[in-house]
């Protein structure tokens, strides 16, 4: 409804926390609203690929603090993201949107393997491609996965949604009351100032390859649709 989409192909990162509505497991109301927004922009002709996090199930770093081997804990984290992918797939298909899940860890019964050229073909046909299991390797995050997948499928922007924060701040707003939100920042400045809303690996991959990123909050209705359409929202991060 509000203008022509600015981006033709986007990579949307959804954190696992969003799927759980702040708790363990899945919140169908939240996933439903999210799917409505994605369906809306897909109908406007935007090609949407999604990288899904898994923080509503397991985070490797947290499990390893409880005594688990870090790499094994990270694999558990990756498996959690696949459950979120299947949930998103289901809600999107209920809304008439064609989808494909591609997993970085092979599991033929539930997902295609990650094949980048095939992912691009799906996008060209108007299917939403949902990437699961991160990069398939421990010690990485799904934020970094979002940057890598965006580059490989030639997305025009990374739309990095965050839970509980609506952009990049000069400091951590949860601990520093003087922190203020930035409308724009360069990757170099964000890295130099150690602004950690997004992990450094993701920032530096995008910086080196001159891929823009928009960091925005999920609070408030319609933010995903707004970001995908290219409306100014959150913080624009550029090389
Ligand atoms: N993970 C991993 N390699 C990857 C992506 C994810 O090992 O390439 C694991 C890691 O343990 C991480 C978990 O999967 O904590 C869930 O992903 P993430 O924490 O990025 O999810 P989010 O915070 O977005 O919900």
What does this structure look like?
This protein is α/β, with parallel strands linked by helices and 239 residues long. The protein has a single domain (9-238), classed as 3-Layer(aba) Sandwich (Carbamate kinase), CATH 3.40.1160. Helices cover 39% and strands 18% of the residues. The protein is built from nine helices and nine strands. It has helices spanning 16-19, 28-43, 60-65, 70-94, 116-124, 142-152, 187-192, 200-208, 223-229; strands at residues 9-14, 47-52, 99-103, 112-113, 128-132, 157-162, 184-186, 213-217, 235-238. It has a nine-stranded mixed β-sheet with strand order 4-3-5-2-1-6-8-9-7, sandwiched between helices. Helix 2 (28-43) crosses helix 4, helix 2 (28-43) packs parallel to helix 9 (223-229) and helix 6 (142-152) runs parallel beside helix 8. The longest helix is centred in the middle third of the chain and has 25 residues, at 70-94. The radius of gyration is 17 Å and the shape is globular. The protein starts with 8 loop residues before the first strand and ends with a strand. Uridine-5'-diphosphate (UDP) is lined by residues 15-17, 53-55, 59-61, 74, 77-78, 81, 134-135, 137-138, 140-143, 145. It is found in: Cytoplasm. Belongs to the UMP kinase family. Catalyzes the reversible phosphorylation of UMP to UDP.
């Amino acid at each position: 409804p509000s203008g022509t989409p600015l981006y033709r192909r986007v990579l949307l990162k959804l954190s696992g926390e969003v799927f759980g509505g702040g708790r363990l497991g899945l919140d169908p109301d939240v996933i439903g609203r999210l799917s409505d927004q994605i369906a809306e922009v897909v109908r406007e002709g935007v090609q949407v690929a999604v990288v899904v996090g898994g923080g509503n199930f397991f985070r490797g770093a947290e499990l390893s603090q409880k005594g688990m081997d870090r790499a094994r804990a990270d694999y558990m984290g990756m498996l959690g993201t696949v459950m979120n992918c299947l949930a998103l797939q289901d809600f999107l298909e209920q809304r008439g949107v064609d989808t494909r899940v591609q997993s970085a860890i092979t599991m033929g019964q539930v997902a295609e393997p990650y094949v980048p050229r095939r992912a691009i073909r799906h996008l060209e046909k108007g299917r939403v491609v949902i990437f699961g299991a991160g990069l398939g390797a421990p010690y990485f995050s799904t934020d970094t996965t979002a940057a890598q997948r965006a580059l490989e499928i030639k997305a025009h922007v990374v739309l990095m949604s965050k839970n509980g924060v609506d952009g990049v701040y000069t400091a951590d707003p949860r601990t520093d009351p003087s922190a203020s939100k930035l409308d724009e920042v360069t990757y170099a400045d964000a890295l130099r100032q150690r602004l950690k809303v997004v992990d450094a690996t993701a920032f530096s991959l995008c910086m080196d390859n001159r891929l823009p990123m928009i960091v925005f909050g999920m609070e408030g209705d319609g933010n995903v649709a707004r970001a995908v359409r290219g409306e100014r929202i959150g913080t624009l991060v550029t090389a």
